[in-house]
Amino acid sequence: MPAKTPMYLKTPTDRRGRKLRLRDVLSGDMISPPLGDVRHSAHSSDRPPHGGAEALTHRAVSGCGVQCHRCTNFNFVFLQICVRCARSDRGGERRTRGGPEEDQRRTRGGPEEDQRRTRGGPEEDRRRREAKMKLNIDGLLVYFPYDYIYPEQYSYMLELKRTLDAKGHGVLEMPSGTGKTISLLSLIVAYQRAFPLEVTKLIYCSRTVPEIEKVVEELRKLMEFYSKQTGETNNFLALALSSRKNLCIHPEVSALRFGKEVDNKCHSLTASYIRAQRHNNPNQATCRFYEEFDAVGRQVPLLAGVYNLDDLKEHGRRKGHCPYYTARYAILHANIVVYSYHYLLDPKIADLVSKELAKKSVVVFDEAHNIDNVCIDSMSVNITRRTLDRCQTNVDTLHSTIQNIKDTDAARLTEEYRRMVEGLKEANVARETDVYMSNPVLPDEILKEAVPGSIRTAEHFVCFLRRFTEYLKSRLRLQHVVQESAPQFLKDIFDKVCIDRKPLRFCAERLQSLLRTLEISDIADFSAVTLISNFATLVSTYSQGFTIIIEPFEDRTPTIANPVLHFSCMDPSIAIKPVFQRFQSVIITSGTLSPLDIYPRILDFRPVTMASFTMTLARTCLCPLIVGRGNDQVALSSKFETREDIAVIRNYGNLLLEMSAIVPDGIVAFFTSYIYMENIVASWYEQTILENIQRNKLIFIETQDAAETSLALEKFQEACENGRGAILLSVARGKVSEGIDFVHHFGRAVIMFGVPYVYTQSRILKARLEYLRDHFQIRENDFLTFDAMRHAAQCVGRAIRGKTDYGLMVFADKRYARADKRGKLPRWIQEHISDGSLNLTVDESVQLAKHFLRQMAQPFRQTGEGGEALQTGEGGEGGEALQTGEGGEGGEALQTGERGVRPFRQVRGERGVRPFRQVRGERGETGPSDR
């Protein structure tokens, strides 16, 4: 069950349910405590006779750690003192009811008043600013390196601790921009320090390199705070791990453009047989950084500290060690490892990198809303006719190489045959640099078996590969679509070419052994035969959860014959199941996981906690609008039947045109697919809508080319910075929708044109929907809607990246007004959708947007309504903050910044006033709420 929100995190109300401010509480107004949080029974004799502030003082808040700094009682606390002490304090009345004169005295009281406010002069003021927070989370002391904590962060850490206590798995949804990363790190690091034998390692998985870097920087800040507070030197080792492309410091290798080229070149310099050749041939090129690491680096491990990718590269240059292999070696004894999903979910990589990690580890999958697709992609294989042609060339090359070795070094092949008889485990004892890709699926008991006789010798194995390749070529000559299961495929191949299941199962490992025996340095040249071998192993290992679809045409080019064989994984739990079984706790978290219950079903695990947290806001800084009609009352939709409708396209253009005239700075628009975007933009051009839009803002378009998209993003941000304003036209499920944050003025409005359903005529999708229905009882429409709404939420969520941010979320499709669609949006978006924002016309949405933007432009004083939600530290942009006293071990208390409230200021842009951006105060910083 979800934890009750502690009393001090709930806003007190009067008898009519209205929120009360501090002055109301101190004046004795009657308070209705939130339901379900009364600690006394209705018939308790010691319950106070009234429901006012005195009643609250009798309720101890269990587990919250909030104490009055004067009487040390656990009472309802404002400004570090409880209500009872505040009333007895003569200054308390003056602080809350002083009127204009008292307000003026507080802000302009001269040096004496200024010194009284700082309570001890500059030294005390400095000490108080340096003191961050120490929290009591259900009995666990947690260090939090910020001046305040949001209510949802506290609740999030509480649920996270319960998950770790239960040694189980959890699914936690928390809005973007509310400090999810630092909450995770603070709680788990505190747990590691308190229970070092229970949790030995944190494995933090993120999607992209920039996100990995952000996590490491938050971790660095946390460790520095620990050192300041405890006075102890940091004994934790935390590091990031990425590919060779991001870590290599070899001048020649790092200059290569693509990751596969870097991997291949690195292998050609570091393989054990390449290094052995150097003894006979001094001119043989090797990597001096790996040589130094191999000689010295293993004996001198990384010192305790926090290392991002640049730190590892700098360490490598200073010591002369290879940063990539230094990190690979260090993760075995590191306390915290931050790397990509694929190091755990892709079996071909996980078996190399993560095989030795301890069971008592906590695994966190951050931004995990798309984790099921990552699992499926890691286990799927696509084979085209071109792949088979390259494989045929690889097989011929292997055959000629074997013939050459038989003439020059036959003993090498004889030794390999002996190892094959003893089993694959013995045959595959190789140096770390020799293994290019691991076989994902064979368990240890199979690896100990002897290799089947039909593929033991190198020549027999090459003949086996040639036969298998010819069979696949014959299957691709079909002129009609074929769909079959793995057992049906195995039966057909046995009937036609007499290939049994067992040699197919050993195919991937046998190929790796042969490549090492032949001392092949350019492994990338043999990627085609490696792919075919992996397919052979997968199809012979799994009898369920996969399907084989052979299509004579690709979906993109239905008129051009280009046959393709899809070996598609239907069950994402196959890839992630070893992770759940192997590690103590796995946390799946993101800002868009709703509905939560579908992830445990499709990933086949039982979580001990599932919770969704909302975003507490001092002001309503997000405005979702559902536009269902044009001004001519034509229904707006991206359904297939209306995609060519000129009226719908025109109304979509008018919506973007009207929004471009009123929204400052940046607008991001998302379409359901690249083809749909191209058709609409072409139609807008013919109707001169684009020309009218460009009078307001510049237009940039995301393409499928990564370099073009990066350039468009750069120019988009430049146009927003100089005041011209810009619109970025993007695609749901594209690069922009997943990995780019449009902070503050870069994304003042996000428009989602249509519902981003996946292409429903795909045979692979149909097969997956059938599998989900048969095995997990998930109906087709439920999954399609869930998938579309999580991507729509991910797109519109680009607009809000923190509590000091604000933006419009425009859903331009009538279907969003349906309850079944809205119900699958995250809770923090749903609660801001009112009946008045459903099924709007374009004009109505523009009027609501104007009203919202006008509200956001007003100077904002965070006292009064809900000020506990938007918190900044002392000297920042002001307002109330959830903050502890100086260095205390307690929890949060509502506290006003020492330097008072500072309203948002306006700045003038090149094209007039832009009243929406924040600027740094004299002593303040931009709000850390974007963490």
Describe this structure in words.
With 931 residues, the protein is of the alpha/beta class. Among the domains are: 7-94, no CATH class; 244-306, no CATH class; 381-577, Fumarase C, Chain B, domain 1, CATH 1.10.275.40; 622-857, Rossmann fold (3-Layer(aba) Sandwich), CATH 3.40.50. It has an 8-stranded parallel beta sheet with strand order 8-7-9-6-10-15-5-16. A 6-stranded parallel beta sheet has the order 17-22-21-18-20-19, with helices on both faces. β1 and β2 (81-82) form a beta hairpin. The longest helix has 24 residues, at 385-408. It starts with 21 loop residues before the first helix and ends in a 17-residue tail after the last strand. Residues 1-12, 19-67, 74-81, 89-98, 105-109, 113-118, 425-430 and 863-931 have low confidence and may be disordered.
